[in-house]
């Protein structure tokens, strides 16, 4: 019985040894085989950061963005070139009268005259007085003639004189009338053109003409009281009288008319009817 047990145990030991040797031989075969990748179900940690690659080509231009906020005000630029001269505006109101100047120095005394002779001139005083009046009138007429600009204009029926003496409208009327004329009345385009050319070639910008609305506001008439029915040549936007003081009329060198204040002083043009032969 005991010998049977010993034999059994020795057989078991031999089988165990053979089994171990078989397992070792299988382990060597497994280690010599190539490794097969196995997908793991758990998360894999990232490896270290690699080197930077080469820069790629520029991409396509993107869409325009939204308009940004308005920037701050820029620095003031340099002064530009001077523009062309504008048209001449209306003449401004007459300024206040200036202060009286200082009294001048006394002149050098004159040479003593010769002693006069005794004369009974009582009967000649009246004649001398009349001569003084005639001389004064003659001087006034000579002054008027001197102030008439050279180059008188005329038509078949009338003469036209520009007087180079600044007067108010009413003074101009008087100066023309006491010499047998009237302030010029351009009643048609031909006469208006003639006067405008006369004014421009005389180097003037404006003159009084015989048109006004002194009698009734807004109803302009010529100085002979005839209405402006057939002809007028107002500047654009005229007559404009916002304050009701522009009752007299001036002609510009362009031939256009403009209403103006009567107290202003300027040159004026008279017309005289030719004497019939």
TrEMBL record:
Residue span(s) of domain C-type lectin: 155-271
In its UniProt record, which GO terms are filed under biological process? complement activation, lectin pathway; cranial skeletal system development; ossification; positive regulation of opsonization; proteolysis
Keyword check for Nucleotide-binding, yes or no: no
Cell location: Secreted
Query: Region annotation Disordered: residue ranges?
Result: 41-101
A Pfam family found in this protein is Lectin_C
Bias-annotated ranges (Basic and acidic residues): 49-67
Q: Which GO terms describe its molecular function?
A: chemoattractant activity; D-mannose binding; growth factor activity
**Primary location group:** secreted
> Residues of the signal sequence?
1-27
Query: Which SUPFAM superfamilies does the UniProt entry name for this protein?
Result: C-type lectin-like
Protein keywords: Calcium, Collagen, Disulfide bond, Glycoprotein, Lectin, Mannose-binding, Secreted, Signal
- Report the InterPro entries cross-referenced here: C-type_lectin-like, C-type_lectin-like/link_sf, C-type_lectin_CS, CLec_Tetranectin-domain, Collagen, Collectin_CTLD, CTDL_fold
Q: Quick one: a GO cellular component term? A: cytoplasm
Q: Where is the composition biased (Low complexity)?
A: 84-94
Is Methyltransferase set as a keyword in this record? no
User: Which family does the record assign?
Assistant: Belongs to the COLEC10/COLEC11 family.
In Swiss-Prot or TrEMBL terms, this protein is called: Collectin subfamily member 10
Organism field: Cavia porcellus (Guinea pig)
């Amino acid at each position: 019985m005991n010998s049977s047990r010993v034999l059994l145990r020795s057989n078991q030991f031999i089988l165990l040894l053979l089994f171990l040797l078989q397992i070792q031989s299988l382990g060597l075969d497994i280690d010599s085989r190539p490794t097969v990748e196995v997908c793991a179900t758990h998360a894999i940690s990232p490896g270290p950061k690699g080197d930077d690659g080469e820069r790629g080509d520029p991409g396509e231009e993107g869409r325009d963005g939204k308009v940004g906020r308005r920037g701050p005000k820029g620095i003031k630029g340099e002064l530009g070139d001077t523009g062309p001269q504008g048209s001449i505006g209306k003449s401004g109101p007459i300024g206040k009268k200036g202060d009286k100047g200082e009294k001048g120095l006394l002149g050098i005394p004159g040479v003593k005259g010769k002693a006069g002779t005794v004369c009974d001139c009582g009967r000649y005083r009246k004649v001398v007085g009349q001569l003084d009046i005639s001389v004064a009138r003659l001087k006034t007429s000579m002054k008027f003639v001197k102030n008439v600009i050279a180059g008188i204009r005329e038509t078949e029926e009338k003469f036209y004189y520009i007087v180079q003496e600044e007067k108010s409208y009413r003074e101009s009327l008087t100066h023309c009338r006491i010499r047998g004329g009237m302030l010029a009345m351009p009643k048609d385009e031909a006469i208006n053109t003639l006067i405008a050319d006369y004014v421009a070639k005389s180097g003037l910008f404006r003159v009084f003409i015989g048109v006004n609305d002194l009698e009734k506001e807004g109803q302009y008439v010529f100085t002979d009281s005839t209405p402006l029915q057939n002809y007028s040549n107002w500047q654009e936007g005229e007559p404009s009288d916002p304050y009701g003081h522009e009752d007299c009329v001036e002609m510009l060198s362009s031939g256009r008319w403009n209403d103006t204040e009567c107290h202003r002083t300027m040159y004026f043009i008279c017309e005289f009817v030719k004497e019939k032969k």
